[in-house]
What does this fold into?
Amino acid sequence: MKRVLTIAGSDSGGGAGVQTDIRTFSLLGCHGSSAITAITAQNSLGVEAIYPVEPQGVAAQIKAVLSDIGADAAKTGMLFSVDIIEAVANALDEYPVEKLVVDPVMVAKGGAPLLKEDARAALKAMILPKAYLLTPNIPEAEALSGVKIGDDASALAAAKAILALGPNAVLIKGGHADGELVTDILVTSEGEERLYVTPRVDTKNTHGTGCTLSAAIAAYLAKGLALAEAVRAAHSFLARAIANSYDLGEGHGPTNPYAAALGGSDRALLERLHKGWELLEEINPWGLIPEVQSNLAEAHEGAESFSDVAAFPGRITKAGERVRHTEGPRFGGSRHMAKILLASQRHASPYRAVMNIRYGADVLAACETLGLTIDSFSRDDEPQEVKEAEGSTLEWGTGSVLARGGEAPRVIFDEGDRGKEPMIRVFGVDAVEVVTIVGDIWNKLRENLK
It folds into this structure.
């Protein structure tokens, strides 16, 4: 059981803060511990009062947890004052946590200040240099960098300015920007730059979005995902949590990490496959469709049978230079794809969706350029009993790769065999994420051809 510590404020309404952090950790299969920095009296309408915990009490909580239980990752949220920031920094000096996600919470959803004005300098000086990842929203990024953000270019400039303050990486969240798409921008001290884009969900129920995202990133980091992959997985997790948010009280309702973690209902899963297809049709990666055609599939969390996995009967094809499908997605729509995902579930992979695409050195090179983790299996190593069992190769191949341990790869390929076309399989936390990755691969291929 991986361990994640949250150092943050308590939300009496349960929509954000420590309550949401612990809920997210647990739903993603991690043990959550906490150090509460402040008690807030709040509900869906806003924060009514703040009662900060004595700094020595905050430090005592952190030391008690880290000296005994430990943490594979940690996150900070509301830190409120200079004294509390200093206490947290000193405690983390004594008990360092490498994978520290810092959510520089400054203002509540309703507008109440959660970080005193005089504490911003302390946050910059004492906490930011300890951050493995900093996750500011646009107003927070502007306050930390002094850069006015109006587009991706200015957001990138702000992220680079914040990097100079000492964090290992910065993720600027784009939820406060206008437009139908939400773009988060990741920049690391190694020079890596990534965009994470998702359709905006039209809802007022966004209380706790920042907490949900940073907690999910911390949980995925604790489970061994590389930074860019943890951010991608958490980005998709938050999108599902917002899409399944609910009304609570008279103001802003909360995100729904439960629905995000479990993948929602049958209907929600099929809707994600429909959205995946719509995105696939827009991207139109016709040059990635193999001779045996493609399919896109997603499985429920804990899937155990073909009926727990949905895909497109008749597969995804190409006609000329357009992708096509003959039927909409349904459960039990592809036994081949189901076997891949069932093997993935048995080996505790965080990925529940997959799409097969054309094999080629150019495609693998694009995957490498994008920083996707890649592994492979050889059909020459396939046991005879597996060869003789119709449709078992993909299940065996996926399982053999995942059985090696370590980080589950985003891409698994094989070079084929007599009568068997070589193939690449792209994995993700849901169907929409898989199609997004396939779109990135397609765009990279087209860039290389220019």
Remarks:
- The longest helix spans residues 431-449.
- The mean pLDDT is 90.
- The chain has two domains: 2-262, 266-449.
